[in-house]
Amino acid sequence: MILKSLSLLNYKNFDSKSFVFNDKINCIVGNNGIGKTNVLDAIYHLSFGKSYFNPVATQNIRHNEDFFVVNGDYTKNEKNEKVIVSLKRGQKKVIKRNGKAYDKFSEHIGFLPLVIISPADRDLIIEGSTTRRKFIDSVISQSDQNYLSDLIKYNKVLAQRNALLKYFALNHTFNADTIDVYNTQLTDYGSKIFKKRDTFLKAFIPIFKSRYEAISNGNEVVELVYDSHLFENDLNLLLKANINKDRALHYTSVGIHKDDLSFNIENHPIKKFGSQGQQKSFLIALKLAQFDFIKAQSGVNPILLLDDIFDKLDENRVGQIIKLVDDENFGQLFISDTHAERTENVIKQVHQSYEMFKL
Ligand SMILES: Nc1ncnc2c1ncn2[C@@H]1O[C@H](COP(=O)(O)OP(=O)(O)OP(=O)(O)O)[C@@H](O)[C@H]1O
């Protein structure tokens, strides 16, 4: 799959801008704040219908403008595919593929597989469990539409159960039968989601470890562990056992929305004991494993966005990463960097064609 060209209208700092891309490597270089990451984010938008960086949709519209349009022309399986994402203030976002608007955005997810590696990934290590669950969910969703639909349904039931708990507390009342209905639904969707997360992680962890080994030259031992209450317990029994706690808290304290991943280096949490370079290597290995996994599932080479990844990495590690991407197994690559010369020197070592875009 190749993104042939991209055009932006009123997207973040760009009024109107077009690119015709190289099929292999595209380097977007320029000073801080010039809009390099915004170009990558526009490409991300075309795959996921939203920004990787800014969850407030309207903030992606250029200041003092009324709308944005991001237009991408792709070839996939030898067919041309045109995807347009647009947003007008006060209206709903529209995603069109070949002129036809999607009813549900979730149907588009996975159509243009993409992996982004960015400094913002640090949130996966430093922030709470939500970001790590989002990561697992986004990898599985790109190759399994049913997973995403079960997840959406689970979250809806969860919100209803929480609202009911709040209502009971405010009105000093309780009805076990209504809670039971929600428990059954949460158990149905939650068990399926748990099984898929478990199966996914069993396949994913070895790939991740081998990616880390390649980046670090095999000198460090890392671990990724799936933490879930559901390993030892049936969700329905758990929900029943915790009902008094949930009533006191006014929300549901157990379920797959509490799952987490532990990231360790040499048997200690990487958040506390990993150096910045080790943390960055860990995140890159995680994302490259995501790439491998999506590719194996979909049979398509995802687009790979490398946002500002050379910072904080020593030459050895940069060399290892470049060696990895200098491989037929990778598809199209987009790299952003502040140092045009550094990027060009690194990219010259790769035996693939490339294009430099100076903003
Ligand atoms: N809605 C918007 N309207 C106008 N400008 C915006 C909007 N959103 C972001 N910007 C501008 O985009 C610029 C940031 O762009 P971006 O993050 O792509 O920079 P960058 O080239 O990647 O920089 P760095 O090298 O520092 O990472 C900032 O100048 C910011 O003010």
What's the topology here?
Layout: E1 2-11, E2 14-20, E3 25-29, H1 36-48, E4 67-76, E5 79-88, E6 94-97, E7 100-101, E8 114-117, H2 123-126, H3 129-141, H4 145-170, H5 176-216, E9 222-227, H6 235-241, H7 243-249, E10 260-265, E11 268-269, H8 270-273, H9 276-298, E12 303-307, H10 315-325, E13 333-337, H11 340-348, E14 354-358
Parallel strand pairs: 3-13, 3-14, 8-12, 12-13
Antiparallel strand pairs: 1-2, 1-4, 4-5, 5-6, 6-7, 9-10, 10-11
Task: Report a brief summary of the structure.
It is found in: Cytoplasm. With 359 residues, the chain is an alpha/beta fold. It has 11 helices and 14 strands.
Description of the molecule:
The protein folds into two domains: 1-113 and 300-359, 3-Layer(aba) Sandwich (Rossmann fold); 125-297, RecF/RecN/SMC, N-terminal domain (Glutathione S-transferase Yfyf (Class Pi), Chain A, domain 2). It is α/β, with parallel strands linked by helices. The chain is built from eleven helices and 14 strands. It has helices at residues 36-48, 123-126, 129-141, 145-170, 176-216, 235-241, 243-249, 270-273, 276-298, 315-325, 340-348; strands spanning 2-11, 14-20, 25-29, 67-76, 79-88, 94-97, 100-101, 114-117, 222-227, 260-265, 268-269, 303-307, 333-337, 354-358. Strand 6 (94-97) and strand 7 (100-101) form a beta hairpin. Bound molecules: adenosine-5'-triphosphate. Adenosine-5'-triphosphate binds next to helix 1.
Keywords:
about 350 residues, six-stranded antiparallel beta sheet, binds adenosine-5'-triphosphate, 11 helices, five-stranded parallel beta sheet, Rossmann fold, globular, alpha/beta, Glutathione S-transferase Yfyf (Class Pi), Chain A, domain 2, about 25% strand
